[in-house]
Design goal:
Blueprint (H helix, E strand, L loop, with lengths): L9 H30 L3 H16 L17 E5 L5 H6 L1 H10 L3 E6 L4 E6 L8 H14 L3 H4 L1 H4 L4 E6 H4 L5 H11 L4 H10 L2 E5 L2 E6 L1 H16 L3 H18 L1
Antiparallel strand pairs: 1-3, 2-3, 4-6, 5-6
């Protein structure tokens, strides 16, 4: 007797396919879970990594100090001197070139034809900012500051010069402009000296131009007092305001 091969029915084929698909899906889910477990890191480790990143971002970058030897080219500055400051420049020349040559180790010369003071770095110059400090010192003297006051720019780093015109505060002409400048100066310079002593600054009145030498905060206080005088405030009111502001500044420090 010949036996016919039995062929699986449609339902059996569907069952076999469904079992194979379920097994494949389970294998895929297991492999995906393993990959996720391998990629995942503990929460504590993630927190430590984030803390390290935050600490690295908060750290200040440290740079090596730049010396004049790093710049191969020589630096030169030329400061123009006004006509009215040529005579004081010649009379105070020794007091000007001594701190520049001895302390900053710069070369300096006065060119009377072009009315300029020329500064040049040398091999003995150590600080990279020496040429700029020397230029600021000569520029301060050219504006009208005394040599002893301008030397402070070489010794301290937080001193600046602020310049402005009287007409920048209020447009004045003729006698009104002269009276405004007189209010700033005061009788025999009394008002100007008071502002300088209270704010620890130095003030130069050059016609309509006003120059203030000092720290940033003190310059702001002195400038506010001068602007009040230009607008027309009485000196007594300005003195009272200066007293209160100076006391607040002293309390902060």
């Amino acid at each position: 007797m010949s036996t016919k091969p039995t062929t699986p029915s449609v339902d059996q084929e569907e069952n076999v396919l469904s079992e194979e698909s379920v097994q494949q899906e389970s294998n895929k889910s297991k492999s995906n879970k393993r990959s996720r477990d391998a990629d995942m890191t503990p929460v504590s480790e993630q927190g430590e990594e984030n803390d390290d990143n935050v600490n690295d971002s908060n750290k200040k970058p440290s740079f090596s100090q730049i010396t004049i030897e790093d710049t191969e080219t020589e630096q030169i500055r030329k400061i123009t001197i006004p006509f009215n400051r040529l005579a004081p420049l010649k009379s105070n020349w020794q007091q000007i070139y001594e701190p520049i040559v001895t302390h900053l180790k710069l070369q300096i010369r006065m060119n009377t034809k072009t009315r300029k003071v020329e500064l040049k770095s040398s091999k003995t110059t150590k600080e990279a900012s020496a040429i700029q400090k020397g230029a600021d010192f000569v520029h301060a003297f050219s504006l009208g500051f005394d040599v002893n006051d301008a030397v402070a720019l070489l010794r301290l780093d937080d001193l600046y010069i602020d310049s402005f015109d009287v007409e920048d505060v209020k447009i004045l002409k003729g006698d009104n402009l002269a009276r405004a400048i007189g209010r700033v100066a005061g009788q025999n310079g009394k008002t100007k000296f008071t502002i300088e002593n209270v704010t620890k600054t130095r003030i130069v009145l050059a016609d309509k131009r006003i120059h203030i030498l000092g720290s940033y905060q003190n310059i702001r206080v002195a400038k506010d007092a001068i602007c009040d005088l230009i607008i027309g405030s009485p000196p007594g009111k300005v003195y009272a305001k200066l007293k209160t502001v100076s006391s607040r500044i002293s309390e902060r420090f």
